[in-house]
Amino acid sequence: MAATVYSCQLHESKGLCRIIYFSGLEFDLILHPYVYGEPLVTTQPLYFLEDIGSIAKLSVEHPKKITDIEMEYLIDNYLFECSLSDETSKVCAKITDPAFWHPDYSGFYQYHDKRNTRALTLDPYNDDSILEITDIDGNEWAFSDYCFPKEFIDDALSESALKIKAIYERKIIVKIMPNWERDGYFGKLRLVECDGTSVS
Q: Contact 99/9 with Cβ under 8 angstroms?
């Protein structure tokens, strides 16, 4: 069944580090980690869950509808319930610095990276005005995403993430005598130690 999905920016949601599912009111709500700003060229190969924020997502199945006031009431009530089970939680939907913007479909490009870059975004399957898309050599463009550069960036990031994760496994052998600042050590040491929860 068709549904409209609403995304709501959250304040003080950094470090939530988990997915939370709320039910009980007319519509269910999901909170999950989210990197704001529609990153494209600024996407990192690895993130630490503790350092990224979260977003609220609400799905409304057709033909049901929800007003802005009803949505605010629902989100506020679920977040209040969240604060009762976690006294340290300060997550709320009251924001002063919006992280989203309305897309402008009058052009060929859409904003990404906190509106610092624009990516060619076309929909050849649903836009009858697009007659043909080829590469510079005249070959048919085999796209996999409406945001055309995304597949190239994803490939580069996947390769980078694998190489970085491999560094986590690398070790060297050291012989270090103790001094007044630290203990000595003879043996193997990892090049990188991770205290956070990394995701790619």
A: yes
Q: Are 149 and 120 in contact (CB under 8 A)?
A: yes
Total count of residues recorded for the chain: 200
Burial 156-188 (b: 16+ CB within 10 A, else e): eeeeebeeeeeeeeeeeeeeeeeeeeeeeeeee
pLDDT tens-digit series, residues 68-126 = 888 888 998 888 888 888 778 888 888 888 899 998 889 999 999 999 999 999 998 88
The overall average pLDDT reported for the chain is 90
Cα(190)–Cα(173) distance, rounded to whole angstroms?
9
Selection from 40-54, 56-70, 109-123, 141-155 with the highest mean pLDDT: 109-123
- Helix or strand or coil: residue 186? strand
**Nearest residue to 195 (alpha-carbon basis) of 20, 73, 48:** 48
* Alpha-carbon span 199 to 101, nearest angstrom: 26
pTM for the model: 0.79
End-to-end CA distance of the chain: 31
